[in-house]
Here is the input.
Amino acid sequence: MSELFATTGTIAAIATAVVPQQGSVGIVRVSGSQAMTIAQSLFHAPGRQVWESHRILYGYIRHPQTQQIVDEALLLIMKAPRSYTREDVVEFHCHGGIMAVQQVLQLCLENGSRLAQPGEFTLRAFLNGRLDLTQAEGIADLVGAKSPQAAQSALAGLQGKLAHPIRQLRANCLDILAEIEARIDFEEDLPPLDDKAIVSEIDKIAAEITRLLETKDQGELLRTGLKVAIVGRPNVGKSSLLNAWSRSDRAIVTDLPGTTRDVVESQLVVGGIPVQVLDTAGIRETTDQVEKIGVERSRRAANAADLVLLTIDASAGWTEGDEEIYEKVQHRPLIIVINKIDLVEESDRKNFQSKIPNVKSKIVTAAAQNQGIDALETAILEIVQSGKVQAADMDLAINQRQAAALTQAKISLEQVQATITQQLPLDFWTIDLRGAIQALGEITGEEVTESVLERIFSKFCIGK
Here is the structure.
């Protein structure tokens, strides 16, 4: 292992967020062979409390030399193998804030432990066989989940719902490999190999891999969210739309055009998908240098967004300025939001809307009156689904690393089928079949390199 993952010795880290004057509890976690010795050196449990696994003791953390009390705390004991890392683990549950947990951590470091690397607790759980790689990644996804659906998807990975089908696919490949190698080694003692049966089994494996790959886009949406840019001319109600949608006053709203000079962000959840909404400055030609910078940022935000909400003022009709903006964003996934519809007479609405470009998604809103938000969210979800990023199985969504390995496995299986079609010797069949087996093993960690581990666990926080 590299220095990043020097997984020997006893490690310690603060396992909770450290924020000044915030948080009622702070936890210092220690794992390794010296964990119990460190706990007994630092923690005083008055009375006849029993020091045994899976008990919580009440007492004081004291400096072992000066006997000065550092904090009143609880001590949680989890002896191997019944712990997160399958090593002896102790947790000091201190008062929250900054000083208490940092003083306790320092005492742990001075008495036999070293500071844990990012993700090292979970890495030890993987190396000690408690978790596979999909479960470890599920933990990271759960910590970073931005919506209930993202959390459910992460929990599915943590519970092994991805690992199980991957292991089954790998086992099926191993069975096929065993059949082929048996014919190579004992050709005279066994009946001929059924080529059609082999091809049929590979087709089934490839089909299941394809099904899993279809969850990648949904997984990316659940993890990273959808970036939505609200663009349009000045004073069409973009900021009012953001405020109504987010149910807040994030953006300043006035009757003066050009009020918004910079991009204003808000984080929302739509249909279980995290959405980052960007309210941009009104796009128009201007000599104001500050506003000009805002307009340029608006254009960049529109180009970088996953979805653009081109907002127009219904009371002003479809203008030349709207047309110019539309020409710039029509190549992007687009919803035209016809705002301020409450200011247009019912008899004029149909004629007005006929002048708007014929895009697939058009909705009407009266943002100042909090009207039309449900229709907007429905339109967003329809665009998401029309792009075929809605996973067939919402409970399971793979990440980029897993998708890359599955893609490699599928390519290897296609090469096996090509080899069979070309009637090449059996030895050639096994080469690409082994490649598929290796790729599937990389997903769960049955076949893994140090560089893969480093890439995965370095993204974790230090105490996890």
About this structure: The first strand starts at residue 11 and ends at 14. The longest helix spans residues 163-185. The chain is about 45% helix and 15% strand. The two ends are 19 Å apart (CA to CA).
